[in-house]
Amino acid sequence: MTGAASETSPKSADGRGETVRMAAILAVVIAVVALLIALGARRPLEHSAIGLAGLERWLGEKGVPTVSAIGDATAAGTLRILPIYDPRLLGEGARQEDGAEDERGSLAPRPLSEAEFAARARAGPVLAVLPKWRGGIVSRGVAHPDLLVPSHAMAFFGEPPVARLPERGLSRLLVYDADNDEVLPQAATLYSGQVLSRSLDEKCRPVLVLRDDGGRDLGTLLADCTGASLVRSNNALFVLSDPDVFTNAGLANGDNAALALSLVDSFAGNAKVFVETDTTRGPDPALAPSQTDGDDPRQRTLADLDRFFVYPFSTFWIGLVLVSGLALWRGSRRFGRPQADEEPAEASKRRTIEASRRILMLARADEALVDRHVKDRVEGLASGLFGAARGQTGGDAAALTRFLSRRAPQLGERFAGAYATVTDERLTERSRLEALGAFEAVIQEIWHEFGRVAGPARQDRR
Known about the structure:
Order of helices and strands: HHEHHEHEEEEEHEEEHHEHHHHHHH
Number of helices: 15
Radius of gyration: 40 Å
Largest sheet: 9 strands, mixed
Strand content: 5-15%
Number of strands: 11
Helix content: 40-55%
Mean pLDDT: 79
């Protein structure tokens, strides 16, 4: 009974250790995948569905002169397109909550105060793009009515800035040019279209008006608010009610890309265009073009590396981790644990034993396999205990019995009995395996008794 328990314990411990190692590898793979997914979700605002990075690239491709930064010396001659993501212009640190932040995202994905907006408007002409979407759309990338900022949660210099059209989902609307008294050839495709509120409409001059297919006016899309006492500046100030005309997602809908190009080109005239994609910084210091030598004056930081962990790069990293984890797991199952360094002769002998054992197992020669295993164990024990004094190979069992009868009589008696039982040719298959377990337990005890711990025989590779 004791022998069976001794036999089970090393195997159970070995199995538990293997399970722990595999669980650790799996946990590391899952953790890395989760980290990459989290990094992939950290998509910068300007590159998200509501960002304006696509507009900047689109204008440059169509020949509209753009600049990457402006300062006090160049702001007056540059049209600044300023996206507003703060529905109340309360700035950093102000509490703007409605209880749905965990599910739908922040009301102000990028805060901007009235003072910061006014400073930009006083520096030069501005085309302000009013807010529409909550922060939840940045990570989701898909429009939904629940992700719209509630109209009652918005304010623009003390006035409710916008009104929502009753149509839900995408709508194709005509754009009427009030200055030229004509309908533009490019229509606007908007999700839950947004127009200026009546109070703001009265302070500003409508420039572009949305119409339905019947020619009925629905509201102002773009207004000229220059001199409307909003920022106390004589610089041109245009206000775009619906950001979907300019956003990355909006440019892909209908004729919005052509409409955005026509709109910016007509209002910029000969001036250059600056699309401000980061409103968290103040106006850039004055830099003349000759000071930059044509180089991009924006500083590069380690945060720029995030671009390599967003889609589509994130799919590559996730795939690499999964393949590496699978390779490590398969290798551990195929080749087993790393083997300790061995002498060349010992390593060659072990490989020969393993090869013979595998051949016998494949041939389903259980009796021959057990006999070979018992012989190998006895030879190994004799070699370890006797060393150079070991006699002929055929007398190892008898020599061990004599040695043990002198040093540990009880252990010697148990060894002789276990050896005789396991080598009995009349044993059935089940009895042979039980006898083998008792024999292995005695071998382990002998190694422990004489100062060396014997590891269990290596299991055949699976």
